[in-house]
Design goal:
Blueprint (H helix, E strand, L loop, with lengths): L11 H12 L3 E5 L5 E5 H17 L7 E5 L4 H12 L3 E4 L6 H11 L1 E6 L4 H7 L8 E4 L16 E2 H5 L17 E6 L9 E5 H12 L11 E4 L6 H4 L1 H8 L2 E4 L6 H10 L4 E4 L1 H14 L8 E4 L6 H11 L2 E7 L6 E4 L11 H8 L3 E3 L4 E5 L13 E7 L21 E9 L4 E7 L4 E3 L2 E3 L1 H9 L4 E11 L3 E10 L7 H7 L12 E4 L13 H7 L9
Parallel strand pairs: 1-11, 3-4, 3-5, 4-8, 5-6, 6-7, 10-11, 10-12, 12-13, 13-14, 24-25
Antiparallel strand pairs: 1-2, 8-9, 14-15, 15-16, 16-20, 17-18, 18-19, 19-20, 21-22, 23-24
Helix pairs in contact: 1-2, 1-3, 1-9, 2-3, 4-5, 7-9, 10-11
Bound molecules: adenosine monophosphate.
């Protein structure tokens, strides 16, 4: 028997309709590439996203066509989020940190017809322009007066001139099936070509519902939200959608991701909630600590994308009174899978016991099912000790990659994440590694994340990466590569001694290599493949 309830489809346009109707004056603040701070609100984003939809109609861009962006976090990017997806086209967020060759390949693979880009990315457009035959229109996200002249490119169109003719014009969002594609994002792809996750309206709206839950991001109309995580990577963890659903204020950092710019924006705009990868927060804390400044409004911050070092969770909580929510997810999961929030029974634990839980990546949110399996493919117990390959399933988990010629990545309906984890009896996962980064020593596995976390807790260490080096007897042994804090010194022996009592002797790194910098990938994660290449001539000390 069918239920007798209204069957409205879950469309992204419903989010912006809601935000306009109920939270029209909630602010949208953006630091622009022009350097100034721009002030907008949900009502303006609503009106201008409809102008975007009509501008695309005027160009006769069909439903399902990919519209790409090369843009920072800002109000124009937000307008494209709603204008493109709301009008049944597919928003394709390009990662400007990739090499031009990779970007051109991705544009061709996605068959993007329009590219909307920020002025700062003109050099990328110049490099890729001749290699993107699918692109019919290049739009610069700026005012008419800021359009660059004599670029060597065919005449460019400014975003403001493009949408201006539709100001005040009536427009109704089209209605269509909620399983229609809404946006796409290519994985960073450390090996081989990048692969695209193609999100749907349904997956995006359900993910937004889920992230608003109190035990997830707990987003409300009282929040002022700073997504430092880029809108070009997994839709800024879905925050542009969840914020509309909650009617929250949004604060966009634009290109200003250094500690000073982020701190000043947070203070000026009363930011209560922020989200980003550990490297960004490291820059922020490095800026604040020597000045002795504190946060006056920040209450909680989501840290994910790579393992959050315990020292960082500690610094946020103890030195600044800010709650850290450690989260895990991936492009293929829209991205959220787990968030670390305590349960009622944990409230009576000591601070130290609670901290042990907070260091984990957290527990599944409703909608995400998790399991770990061993080499044989059999499920492993959720005892917090057994670790194996982590599999996921759920309505915002990928079913297949876009234009994938290699068949479905699913195994019995589950997506293999490529992460290795434990799951404890309370459902909290702890990621020990990417499966390709696990160090196998004498038949036992060593977690590179654990080795890195301990090094990062040393006051002289700014960044640490642990990799396995081939060893004639043990297969592999861990080596920790370290970047020191400015004006700090540390010897190999001192750091090795720091591991004593924290992990078993056989898990302790065999060597420490000091470097000036650790290569980071396009999403701010340590690039261990490149690090391994850099250490090619290196050999382990004789033991
Ligand atoms: P991406 O698809 O580029 O966002 O990368 C997803 C991958 O980042 C995951 O599969 C994990 O390997 C890693 N990752 C994300 N969040 C965390 C976390 N909190 N701790 C450890 N690794 C993480």
């Amino acid at each position: 028997m069918r239920g007798l309830m209204q069957g409205d489809h879950l469309l992204i346009s419903s989010l912006i309709e809601f935000a306009n109707k109920n939270h029209g004056d909630s602010e949208i603040i953006s630091r622009r590439v022009e350097g100034d701070i721009h002030r907008s609100n949900w009502a303006s984003v609503y009106a201008r996203s409809k102008q975007v939809a009509q501008a695309l109609d005027a160009w006769k861009i069909g439903a399902g066509t990919r519209i790409a962006t090369l843009a920072w976090n800002g109000y124009r990017h937000l307008e494209l989020y709603y204008g493109v997806s709301g009008s049944e086209r597919v928003l394709h967020t390009l990662n400007p940190r990739l090499l031009p060759d990779q970007i051109a390949w991705i544009v061709g693979h996605a068959h993007d017809e329009v590219v909307c880009f920020e002025l700062t990315f003109l050099p990328i457009v110049k490099a890729i322009h001749a290699h993107c035959p699918s692109v019919k229109h290049w739009v610069v996200l700026c005012d008419e007066s800021a359009l660059p002249k004599e670029t060597g490119l065919p005449p460019l169109l400014s975003y403001e001139a493009w949408i201006k003719p539709f100001e005040g014009q009536h427009y109704t969002w089209p209605l269509f099936d909620e399983n229609t594609a809404s946006s796409m994002c290519y994985t960073s792809g450390t090996t081989g070509h990048p692969k695209a996750a193609l999100y749907s309206h349904r997956s995006t709206v359900l993910h937004a519902f889920a992230t608003c839950q109190v035990d997830v991001f707990g987003i409300s109309a009282r929040d002022s939200i700073l997504p430092v995580v880029p809108m070009f990577h997994v839709n800024a963890w879905g925050l542009p959608y969840a914020s509309a659903m909650a009617g929250a204020k949004l604060v966009f950092p634009g290109p200003g991701l250094d500690g000073k710019s982020v701190y000043e924006l947070m203070e000026h705009e009363g930011v209560t909630f922020a989200a980003g990868v550990p490297t960004v927060w490291q820059m922020l804390l490095n800026y604040m600590a020597p000045l002795g400044v504190k946060f006056s409004s920040l209450q909680r911050t989501i840290i994910g994308g790579s393992a959050c070092p315990p020292a960082m969770i500690h610094a946020f909580q103890e030195d600044y009174g800010v709650e850290v929510l450690h989260a895990w997810g991936m492009t293929e999961m829209s991205p959220l899978g787990t968030v670390c929030t305590l349960k009622n029974k944990h409230l009576k634990l000591s601070k130290d016991e609670q901290m042990k839980i907070r260091l984990k990546q957290g527990r599944a949110l409703y909608g995400v099912d998790l399991k770990i399996v061993g080499d044989s493919g059999d499920p492993l117990p959720h005892d917090g000790a057994a670790f194996g390959d982590l599999y996921v399933k759920g309505p915002w988990v990928i079913e297949n990659y876009y234009k994938n010629e290699q068949g479905s990545p699913l195994v019995d309906g589950w997506f293999p994440t490529g992460d290795v984890a434990t799951i404890d009896p309370d459902g909290f996962i702890q990621i020990t590694d990417r499966s390709k980064d696990v160090i196998k020593s004498g038949g036992e596995w060593i977690s590179s994340i654990e080795i890195e976390n301990i090094a990062m807790a040393h006051p002289s260490v700014m960044m640490a990466a642990c990799i396995g080096m081939a060893h004639p007897k043990w297969d592999e042994r861990p080596v920790v590569v370290v970047v020191l804090r400015p004006e700090k010194t540390l010897t190999k022996d001192e750091l090795i001694a720091f591991y004593e009592g924290k992990i078993a002797k056989w898990q302790t790194p065999d060597d420490v290599v000091f470097v000036d910098a650790i290569p980071l990938g396009a999403t701010g994660k340590m690039l261990k493949t490149r690090l391994r290449e850099q250490l090619k001539g290196y050999s382990l000390p004789k033991s």
